[in-house]
Amino acid sequence: MTKRTRVIVVLSLLALAGAFRFGSPLLLSSDAQASHSHLKIDLSYEASTHAPPPKRVSHYHDVEQGSFFVKEAGDSGYLLSPLLHTQVDFTVTGLISRAVVSQEFTNPSSEWVNGVYVFPLPENAAVDHMKMVIGERVIEGIIKPKETAKSLYEEARLSGKKASLVSQSRPNLFTNTVANIGPGESVKVVIEYQQAVHFEDNTFSLTFPTTITTRYLPSQHNTEQQVEVNEHGWAIPQPIYTQPTPTNNKVAINVALNPGFPVASITSRHHPITQTEVRPNQYQIGLEQAMMANADFTLSWQPQDNQHPIAAHFVQKTEQGQYGMIMLMPPTAENRVSAIAKEMIFVVDTSGSMHGESILQAKQALTFAVNKLSSNDTFNIIQFNAHARALWSESQQNSAANRREANTFIASLTADGGSEIRSALELALGRQHENSERLRQVIFITDGAIGNEAELFNYIHNNIKQTRLFTVGIGSAPNSYFMTEAANMGKGTYTFINTQLDVANSMQALFENLAYPILRDINVAFSDPVESYPKNLPDLYKGQPLMISYKTSEPVTSLNATGYLAEDMWQQSLPLQKGAMQSGLDTLWARRKIAQLSRNKYKGMEASEIDQQILEVAMAHHLVSSMTSLVAVDVTPSALGTSTDRRIHNLTPKGQLLGHLPQTATPALLHLLIAISLMGLALCRLFAIKNP
Amino acid sequence: MSTFRYQKPLIIRLSDMLWGHKIIVCCLAMSLYFFGSSGYIHAKAVLAQYLIKDAWQHTLQNGQQTPPWAWADTFPVATLDINGERLYVLSGATGRTLAFAPGHLQSTPLPGEQGNSVITGHRDTHFSVLASVQVNDVIAAQTTEGVSYYNVVSTRIVDESNVSVIQNTSQGTLTLITCYPFNGLMPNTHLRWVVSAKRMP
């Protein structure tokens, strides 16, 4: 009798323990740590899910639908895409990089087709040259106003002639359409562009983006920016598609580096490279193997320790006048400036496009940032997906308790849903105290998968006031045009983090910048009249140079730059009689002028007038822009009938998870079976003891 | 007088007895754990449907997205009537959502709209009902826009990498996905049971 009660007591104790084990997370989840414990409940599922399900933005009627799918032709199903080979050759001279991108479209099918390829380029790239190579023949592309170019292309396509059209859908996104590729035939299209090399912290760098983050266009965007609606009704030009055989889009890269000074080291952050010094101070760099087009290529090089440049001047003489480029390095002043009291607002993107590696990087970056705050700072965190939510309604002191609360908040972030950047900006910029003593800095961490840039720029421009805006790009393919321009408006900087290994380094560098704004309210005066860009010069931070492009009819003698270095007035003059000859400065100047003109648009100037100015500059300098396209048309018709459209798929950026159906099984049955067999075992044992 | 017999305290006796039957106790404890775990999965699946039902009623009345419980990051988007069983569907097909209800794949349209709506569910809880679905069965799907009826045109087994089943279609299609085989023990199966239904005019 007593034994039986004992057994019952033991069993009920165990049952209680079990109930507590499962019940406790549920009870806990109603408090602040909700999502934390929430995750724990499902641990058994998470463990059994080896590939998380594809997760995208919340409004199904937005971008997503275009993403998975290949272009459909009537009811005949899905088409194969033409094969594509890309070869990029860079020539870097001084501060200018010229790139030649060759793309070979091969048609493996037995029909005549038209190829459509959407490709990203650096946001400051100036595309000025295109040629089409058909067998032995080379056809040079000519610059035309966008509409004219399009109708020339259409005309050629309908009459069965080979034609190629390069147009700009966004400042960093170009479309190349090639008409009438015959069965088994190849057409090579060569595009040339140039850009200024990035220089910061004594490091020069060059980026070649290879794929695009799917952009999210919010449901109620109401702007007049140019969007092209395709026949399925979607205004997103590039579908992302999971490639069953991902070997199709490969990129080969070669760089001829001629910096003009001895180089201490050349590194590529994400792809293994080979390098040889062909002549003194001239280097040849190649990829060890052709890379997959799913992560941006970044090459950086550093001058030797005693060779750090403090200023540079390059000139180009043309028939239209003299073009120049100036680089000026402000003095370092760390020891003079003490850290200023700051209010820091961290804004983190937790939308569906951040799912995968991106959100992990963002969380790491945030944790790093929160723990790096100095004790007299105040801070707040805003997360946004389909809605924006702030951790606190007001920024809080950097106390241990607040830091703990922030860390819990960060740990609970998951990526899901749409990305309404605007509502996050409203939280971050909308409510500013008028006369705050503190320097207000907003750090915006996102992959910039945004389609309604113009509307956002407009909002930022009208509401930024004295706030400084810093953008941190996350993931393999952030929209660096949006990031750079937004930071530009907020007189801040853009930091790019590609892999998780980079997080600490990049954030450390950013934080050093944030603590010490070196030079602000910069003004530049030339001795002679010049037309220089950019117009409003950004604040400079540690390790950043001042970069100016100018055009003049008469040679300039000198330049005088002024600004504030902490509380002191700073002034420096630079003689400009000397300068190394360099080509391509006119193109660079024109590209910067166009960038300035588009910026003026957000400042409420007459759009049609600005468009006219952009058209004039672009036509004069042979540039692809929002108003102009490059078009090449073959003289002889080759196709007999009309060809069908095919689209080349961009690979999904690394880290975004597509391509598996959701995991839809639970371990319930397995656990039940284990439970029954263990129970059986226990009973057998019990009987064996009872009846020895 | 000497009837007093020293008796060890209860806690000592208890531990002696537990130690004497340590194997049995261990087996029983683990057995209970797994019973609990298995029961918990089912309990969560069944009980959550009641909460979601309330949220859905609320959504139907005032048209707002209502999370079924305060800290939920999802909301009901539709109901499905399959072979006399009513299921409340949540938005999002993540592991977290599927524990409570079938999940609507957010990248696809909702039932009743143009295109291919995809709903996934666990084979051993909500979507165990799919095992009995046959061609020509009628599935009713209700969203805030109204009720639409679908006619099952095929049931098939595909590999998990076959994302073509969630590709968009030009007609109104409802695709229900769950793991296969239905009575499989291992949760990491590579096969999926796919029910395709065409919208009835």
Strand content of chain B: 25-35%
Enumerate the spans of chain A where pLDDT stays under 50 for 5 or more consecutive residues: 25-82, 214-247, 651-658
Q: Which sheet architecture does the biggest sheet of chain A show?
A: 9 strands, mixed
On the 0 to 100 scale, the average pLDDT of chain B is: 85
How would you describe what is shown here?
With 692 residues, chain A is α+β, with helices and mostly antiparallel strands. Chain A contains 14 helices and 35 strands. Chain A folds into four domains: 2-56 and 667-690, no CATH class; 68-307 and 621-647, Sandwich (Immunoglobulin-like); 319-333 and 519-604; 340-515, von Willebrand factor, type A domain (Rossmann fold). In chain A, the strands form six sheets. In chain A, strands 1, 2, 4, 5, 9, 12, 14, 15 and 16 form a nine-stranded mixed beta sheet that branches. In chain A, strands 20, 21, 22, 23, 24, 25 and 26 form a seven-stranded mixed beta sheet that branches. The longest helix of chain A is centred in the first third of the chain and has 27 residues, at 2-28. Chain A starts with a helix and ends with a helix. Helices cover 28% and strands 29% of the residues of chain B. Chain B is α+β, with helices and mostly antiparallel strands and 201 residues long. Chain B is built from three helices and eight strands, in the order ααββαββββββ. Chains A and B meet through helix 1, helix 2, helix 3, helix 4 and helix 14 of A and helix 1, helix 2, helix 3 and strand 7 of B. Chain A: It comes from Alteromonas sediminis. Chain A: Keywords: Membrane, Transmembrane, Transmembrane helix. Chain A: InterPro entries: CHP03788, VIT, VWF_A, vWFA_dom_sf.
Core attributes:
heterodimer, A: 692 residues, alpha+beta, Immunoglobulin-like, 4 domains, nine-stranded mixed β-sheet, 27% helix, B: alpha+beta, Sortase, Chain: A, 3 helices, 28% helix
